Amino acid sequence: MLTRFRHRFHTALERRIPEKRLFLRTDTETRFVRLGPGTQLIAWAGSTAIVAWAIVATAILLMDSIGAGNFREQAKREQAIYEDRLNSLSAQRDARAAEAAAAQERFNAALEQVSVMQAELLESEDRRRELERGIEVVQATLRRTALERDAARDELETELAQMEAAGGALPEAARAGEIEATLAFLADALADTAEERDTEASDAALALSLAADMENELKLLEARNDQIFRRLEEAMTVSVEPLDKMFRAAGLPTESLLEQVRRGYSGQGGPLTPLVISTRGAGPNPDGQRANRILNELDKMNLYRIAAERAPFSHPVRDRHRFTSGFGPRWGRMHNGADFAAPTGTDIFATADGVVIHAGWLSGYGRLIKIQHEFGIETRYAHLSKIRVNVGQRVSRGQHIGDMGNSGRSTGTHLHYEIRVGGKPVNPMIYIKAAQDVF
Questions:
Q1: What is the pTM of this model?
Q2: If 416 and its partner were Cys, which of 118, 167, 318, 382 is the partner (CB 3.0–4.6 Å)?
């Protein structure tokens, strides 16, 4: 059966592809190679397969080339977009830095102005006290002059009554001489009284004029004090409200925070002492109350400035860097910090005053620094290439504490930065962005 099938297949193949001979001639002999139908079929099939493979391979290479070209073009476009985005972010960062510098200058100018105004306020209060004492002296002089005038008038009436009572008992000549003497005395007394009256009237007019001038000057001083108070209140509003907003944006309880700072405040001078202006035994007048409110705001602003130094509001990386990952879920797990990428060895800075409680290797964190700050806040700086502080060392805000690296469980050189409040991780960008809106 198989033999007959082969015979029929060979016969049909010979009819379609007859046997051929390939002659090979040299100088000495001639040879030929017989190409049977099967050999020709195999050669034809092989040639066809090679041509088909060449066509398919060429098509694949051509498609890959076209695809690679499109991919390169797309990569170039994405790179251009990414560079534009980087330039935009860089410009925004520079603008923010310029705004922060301008805000700092305005803040310093406001503080200087507050100091000047406070000195002017104290000087004006001293002047006001001098004017009040001058008015009191003038009023005392007027009262004394009125008493002397009344005494002179009573003395004159007494003299006249005595003269009338003694008129009928004296002899005529003696009476005439006595009358003349009495009249001369009375004339002199009247002249002295008139002169004294004129002097007192002149003194009274001068005192009234002086009192009117003092009253006008006092009104001018009060108006100037009111203007100074308004400017101080505006300066306090501009200075204190952004700080209060910054701490509230960071989720920190401002009242308890300020109270904690106040208890631990040991700087020179201490809290400001309230002013008492012209109390005269009573409570503070409206100006005194306004001055005390301003002093309280100054005290509050100073406490905020101290607290700002002790809370991690600054950025741990000051050189050029990229924000590569934020706080929140990532790859099915919680990412408890923010990642900033920059070249290996980039300086890492402490974001607030504190004490180093860990400086060494810690599992996935790699080389890790932990700093304990005030208000129950802890910051962590992970994946470092080098640690430049020791456990127990007190560090200041902005101090160089380590270098950026790729240690621990990390896919590339970057800083993993964490903030924990009461042991719970919080988003570090809340603090950084809150500070960017103020400083």
A1: 0.45
A2: 382
